[in-house]
């Protein structure tokens, strides 16, 4: 009795000192306590507490060592002798937590299988989940029988647990789970809506790779009529995925199914169908209207959730198809005053996108009335809406710009401020009329800006755009203020911006020199270095120097530069480091955001990040000894398909261009499940054009449903001005038949076979890397007319836009000075392109084109183009010129 | 609670509890034997190879047993050692019809006996020469000599032939085990 009193006292004390009793746990003492598990009889209450501590500790990120985890785990297994319900469930949780750290966790397999088939219903589901967590591929066979039974169990909780666990097991042993398909199919017909949903999910996972089977599955269940709205939503997502992947139109039966769901009786299903339809790639205004009609009904629903969902989706639709949403405008107007501010914000921004120019002022007024009440996240939505408005109504820029400037002055987090600054920057870049006003607002903003990254961005922009305005002098004050007042990174950016003014303008040069000279005494190394560097450069007032080192930055890939410099310092050499051996940074092409992802669709595989693509290729190739002497990769092309997508072997080719060689990488996917390929190589023939195959690196084995890579090394033709052409490709390999289940080959021998692929084209653009010259004309002067080539062509292309697009894609060069955008209604245009030719030679192209001219066909539109090419290398000029012919 | 407990103990009303470890090669009949000891209504006809271990409860002669039924498959035998320390008795089951693998059983027994958690303690070991009904089964004496049980000097042990399916011989063995545990318990008290 006394002891229990004391315990209580102690407890009170603990709870009064700290709110969380588990706050100051020590791993060693908790593990020490876990020895209690070995006692008989089991003290359930105490053990539950200890297990809680252990789970808490693991979830707080405490790392258990393998031996201590195993020891604790085995002590815990002894608790299976207790029949205490709570304790048993804590054991399940602990097993799941420790399954990855402890050894021999399979020791509890039999205990768990007994619980999952036992009489205690509340133990069965958790036991299944714990069992699947400890099951490794080698154990799959032994649990199979139990899982099959559990999937078709009468109890919904058991069946659901088995189904969801099976989805996880798919990762371990898909082959075994696939054998349970009959049971899963039975579970789809279960009356319980959750079981039905989970069963459908597993069925999809099992059939996933077989598009035809998925198609049949959808058609079957759309007719059979599922009870579960969740299952319906899932079917809609699968169907949408299929339509998008296969590029089907709205005439497909999959679309009919989604469309029919718009008339389902459950609101969730209706919404899912509507939001799926609007995000389909193939959707046309006609189909859109039916989905929008449904959403329109939701707008006037009394349920806030539905209103929110509908208006959010409409908001996204309005970005791409404003016309389709116009029909809802009247209903949206009523939502402006909705008591839920999130709904109101979305309604207003939707109206902003769909409305006409006259309504903008009114809506902006409305929104500013409650702007202070909404969260940053929704303010960002407003900013996005304003951005699209500016693109739509360029004339409204004064109203919108003032509004943005006001928003910029108010309180807000980094993300919010970033969105505003991005919007202003994009307006400045798109709309020349708004440029001066926008720059003035930004100048004001950096006077009091706490975000270093934003300040440096703005300074960079000022350096680029400022010198070209009518009165560049007025920006100098703002920039120099930064040099005096700000932290080191901002000061450094300000110095660079100042130097750009100095390089661009003769008048300002003396003043800039004075300012830079003062900054050479800065206390920060970087700032001082930059100031000294620019001061010395500007003193020469040499155009070529200015262009190369101030106005246009170095365009090498920074990660590659770092790697190569590191390698250079590792090996002692007297040879100076050659910057030209560094791969050039690919210009990040900004895609207009057309996809409206509203959170529907199934999770897709991660997209390959483009920035590091070439680095990874570089490492892959460097690992092959035959390619070691080739030097760094100049350019890797995007993968090109050499086969249809439905054939036995799907082959993609990537061209890696080196200074005198090309390595063709063939990624071969063996889609057959009963054949194994060995010694795979791709024979190439390009002798007619002077390409010479030097070496084949075959891929030793490509297993069933697996991908392998083989490489072919080709030497470029000796004539350096004729480096394009097409090469015939034939895949040669040895086939071995094998057992689809095990993947083991049936016989030793196999037979040789070959497979003809499409030709690989080597084009001009393979030899050229895009480079963005921020100041193109300065570079043009710098290179000079030494290797100039000028010619006039007549092209039978109807519009200037098309002509610009074609030239860019043929030459593979980057358009500078925004010259890729042709203003409306103009009859002539000048296109400025920049690039680096294989071997590191700068190439610049000026194409002046005008509508008119005559071609062979009478009546056809034609364009006359005067093409001027300059480069530091003569053959580069020849090759680029050949791209036009 | 102490007083009340002591009173019950004094009256001998409470079942004393004992942990028993059941080991032996795979397919020797451990799970079947324990299945026979379970109450009639929860017995099962479907015995599958144990993976890891499972826990059984049964009582006999005033003793309540908690039996840890270990898996006998070779890859799991190393896991037995985790349970030696906390056990009050060991039941070692031998398939007396499997003359080739009886030497494997002997190997495993030697390892068990030399384990520090077992060798230093006086824990009773009960051997079942199981599957006595099969035609070419060894007798309990034959099994005993094949395992050289006579070398065990510091522990009480007992061997009997059994048939786990019909229960023949099982009760005799368990009765010995209960009395042996009681004795060792009393010795421990002194």
UniProtKB/TrEMBL annotation, chain A:
Pfam families reported for this sequence: Adaptin_N, Coatomer_g_Cpla, COP-gamma_platf
InterPro entries noted in UniProt: ARM-like (IPR011989), ARM-type_fold (IPR016024), Clathrin/coatomer_adapt-like_N (IPR002553), Clathrin_app_Ig-like_sf (IPR013041), Coatomer/calthrin_app_sub_C (IPR009028), Coatomer_g_Cpla (IPR032154), Coatomer_gsu (IPR017106), Coatomer_gsu_app_Ig-like_dom (IPR013040)
SUPFAM superfamilies to which the protein is assigned, alphabetical: ARM repeat (SSF48371), Clathrin adaptor appendage domain (SSF49348), Subdomain of clathrin and coatomer appendage domain (SSF55711)
GO biological process: endoplasmic reticulum to Golgi vesicle-mediated transport; intra-Golgi vesicle-mediated transport; intracellular protein transport; organelle transport along microtubule; protein secretion
Biased composition (Basic and acidic residues): 1-14
Clathrin/coatomer adaptor adaptin-like N-terminal domain residues: 27-541
Protein name in UniProt: Coatomer subunit gamma
Organism: Rotaria magnacalcarata
TrEMBL record, chain B:
Binding site for GTP: 24-31, 72, 130-133
One GO location term (cellular component): axoneme
Annotated membrane topology: Peripheral membrane protein
Domain of life: Eukaryota
Membrane-traversing stretches: none
Keyword Cell membrane assigned: yes
Gene3D superfamilies: P-loop containing nucleotide triphosphate hydrolases (3.40.50.300)
A Pfam family recorded for this sequence: Arf
InterPro entries per record: P-loop_NTPase (IPR027417), Small_GTP-bd (IPR005225), Small_GTPase_ARF (IPR024156), Small_GTPase_ARF/SAR (IPR006689)
Keywords: Cell membrane, Cell projection, Cilium biogenesis/degradation, Cytoplasm, Cytoskeleton, GTP-binding, Lipoprotein, Magnesium, Membrane, Metal-binding, Myristate, Nucleotide-binding
Binding positions for Mg(2+) per the UniProt entry: 31, 50
GO molecular function terms listed in the Swiss-Prot or TrEMBL record: GTP binding; GTPase activity; metal ion binding
Cross-referenced SMART domains: ARF, RAB, SAR
Keyword Heme: no
GO biological process: cell projection organization
Subcellular location: Cell projection, Cilium membrane; Cytoplasm, Cytoskeleton, Cilium axoneme; Cytoplasm, Cytoskeleton, Cilium basal body
Listed PANTHER family: ADP RIBOSYLATION FACTOR-RELATED
Family named by the database record: Belongs to the small GTPase superfamily. Arf family.
Identification of the protein by name: ADP-ribosylation factor-like protein 6
Organism in which the protein naturally occurs: Rotaria magnacalcarata
């Amino acid at each position: 009795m006394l002891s229990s009193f004391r315990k209580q006292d102690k407890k009170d004390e603990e709870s009064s000192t700290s709110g969380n009793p588990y706050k100051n746990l020590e791993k060693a003492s908790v593990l020490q306590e876990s020895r209690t598990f070995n006692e008989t009889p089991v003290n359930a209450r105490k053990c539950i507490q200890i297990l809680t501590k252990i789970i808490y500790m693991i979830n707080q990120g405490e790392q258990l060592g393998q031996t201590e985890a195993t020891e604790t785990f085995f002590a815990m297994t002894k608790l299976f002798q207790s029949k205490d319900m709570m304790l048993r469930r804590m054991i399940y949780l602990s097993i799941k937590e420790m399954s990855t750290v402890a050894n021999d966790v399979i020791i509890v397999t039999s205990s768990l299988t007994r619980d999952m088939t036992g009489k205690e219903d509340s133990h069965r589901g958790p036991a299944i989940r714990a069992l699947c967590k400890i099951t490794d591929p080698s154990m799959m066979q032994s649990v199979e029988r139990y899982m099959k039974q559990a999937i078709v169990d009468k109890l919904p909780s058991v069946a659901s647990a088995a189904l969801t666990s099976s989805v996880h097991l798919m990762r371990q042993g898909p082959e075994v789970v696939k054998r349970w398909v009959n049971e899963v199919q039975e579970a789809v017909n279960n009356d319980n809506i959750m079981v039905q949903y989970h069963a459908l999910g597993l069925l999809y996972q099992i059939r996933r790779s077989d598009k035809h089977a998925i198609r049949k599955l959808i058609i079957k269940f759309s007719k059979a009529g599922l009870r579960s709205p969740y299952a319906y939503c899932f079917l809609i997502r699968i169907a949408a995925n299929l339509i998008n992947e296969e590029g089907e139109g709205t005439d497909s039966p999959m679309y009919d199914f989604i469309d029919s769901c718009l008339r389902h009786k459950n609101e969730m299903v209706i919404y899912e169908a509507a939001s799926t339809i609007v995000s389909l790639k193939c959707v046309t205004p006609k189909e859109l209207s039916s989905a929008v009609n449904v959403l329109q009904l939701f707008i006037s629903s009394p349920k806030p959730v539905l209103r929110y969902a509908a208006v959010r989706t409409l908001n996204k639709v309005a970005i791409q198809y404003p016309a389709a949403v116009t029909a809802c405008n009247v209903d949206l107007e009523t939502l402006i005053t909705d008591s839920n501010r999130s709904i109101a914000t979305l309604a207003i921004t939707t109206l902003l996108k769909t409305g006409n120019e006259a309504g903008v002022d009114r809506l902006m007024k409305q929104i500013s009335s409650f702007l202070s009440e909404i969260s940053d996240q929704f303010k960002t939505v407003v900013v996005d809406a304003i951005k699209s408005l500016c693109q739509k109504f360029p004339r409204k820029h004064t109203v919108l710009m003032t509004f943005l400037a006001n928003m910029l002055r108010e309180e807000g987090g980094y993300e919010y401020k970033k969105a505003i600054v991005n919007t202003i920057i994009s307006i400045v870049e798109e709309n020349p009329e708004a440029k001066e006003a926008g720059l003035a607002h930004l100048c004001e903003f950096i006077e009091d800006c706490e975000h270093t990254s934003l300040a440096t961005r703005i300074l960079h922009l000022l350096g680029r755009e400022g010198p070209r305005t009518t009165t560049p002098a007025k920006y100098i004050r703002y920039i120099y203020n930064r040099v005096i007042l700000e932290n080191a990174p901002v000061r450094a950016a300000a110095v660079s911006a100042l130097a750009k003014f100095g390089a661009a303008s003769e008048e300002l040069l003396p003043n800039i020199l004075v300012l830079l000279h003062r900054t050479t005494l800065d206390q920060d190394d970087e700032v001082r270095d930059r100031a000294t560097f620019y001061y010395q450069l500007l003193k020469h007032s040499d155009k070529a120097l200015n262009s190369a080192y101030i106005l246009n930055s170095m365009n090498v890939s920074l990660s590659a530069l770092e790697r190569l410099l590191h390698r250079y310092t590792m090996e002692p050499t007297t040879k100076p480091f050659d910057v030209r051996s560094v791969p050039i940074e690919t210009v990040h092409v900004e895609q207009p955001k057309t996809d409206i992802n509203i959170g529907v669709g199934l999770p897709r595989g991660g997209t390959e990040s483009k920035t590091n693509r070439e680095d990874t290729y570089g490492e892959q190739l460097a690992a092959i000894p035959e390619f070691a002497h080739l030097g760094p990769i100049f350019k890797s092309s995007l993968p090109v398909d050499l086969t249809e997508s439905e054939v036995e072997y799907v082959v993609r080719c990537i061209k890696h261009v080196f200074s005198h060689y090309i390595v063709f990488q063939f990624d071969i996917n063996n889609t057959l499940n009963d054949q194994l390929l060995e010694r795979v190589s791709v024979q190439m023939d390009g002798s007619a054009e002077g390409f010479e195959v030097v070496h084949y690196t075959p891929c030793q084995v490509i297993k069933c449903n697996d991908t392998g890579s083989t490489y072919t090394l080709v030497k470029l033709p000796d004539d350096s001005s004729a480096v394009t052409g097409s090469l015939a490709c034939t895949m040669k390999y040895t086939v071995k038949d094998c057992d689809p289940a095990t993947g083991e080959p049936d016989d030793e021998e196999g037979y040789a076979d070959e497979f003809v692929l499409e030709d690989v084209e080597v084009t001009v653009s393979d030899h050229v890397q895009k480079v963005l010259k921020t100041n193109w004309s300065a570079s043009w002067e710098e290179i000079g007319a030494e290797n100039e080539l000028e010619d006039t062509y007549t092209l039978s292309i109807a519009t200037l836009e098309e002509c610009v697009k074609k030239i860019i894609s043929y030459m593979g060069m980057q358009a500078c000075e925004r010259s890729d955008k042709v203003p409306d209604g103009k009859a002539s245009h000048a296109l400025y392109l920049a690039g680096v030719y294989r071997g590191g030679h700068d190439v610049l192209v000026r194409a002046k084109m005008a509508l008119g001219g005559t071609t062979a066909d009478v009546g056809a539109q034609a364009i006359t183009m005067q093409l001027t090419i300059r480069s530091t290398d003569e053959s580069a000029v020849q090759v680029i010129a050949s791209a036009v012919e | 609670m102490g007083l009340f407990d002591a009173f019950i103990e004094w009256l001998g009303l409470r079942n004393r509890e004992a942990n028993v470890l059941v080991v032996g090669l795979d397919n020797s009949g451990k799970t079947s034997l324990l299945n026979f000891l379970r109450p009639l209504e929860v017995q099962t006809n479907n015995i599958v190879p144990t993976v890891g271990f499972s826990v059984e409860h049964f009582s006999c002669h005033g003793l309540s047993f908690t039996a840890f039924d270990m898996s006998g498959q070779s890859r799991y035998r190393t896991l037995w050692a985790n349970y030696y320390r906390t056990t009050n008795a060991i039941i070692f089951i031998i398939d007396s019809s499997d003359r080739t693998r009886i030497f494997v059983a002997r190997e495993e027994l030697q390892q068990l006996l030399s384990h520090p958690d077992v060798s230093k303690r006086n824990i009773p070991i009960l051997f079942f020469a199981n599957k006595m009904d099969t035609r070419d089964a060894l007798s309990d004496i034959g099994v005993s000599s094949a395992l050289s049980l006579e070398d065990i000097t510091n522990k009480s042990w007992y061997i009997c032939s059994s048939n786990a399916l019909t229960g023949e011989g099982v009760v005799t063995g368990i009765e010995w085990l209960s009395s042996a545990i009681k004795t060792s318990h009393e010795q421990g008290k002194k």
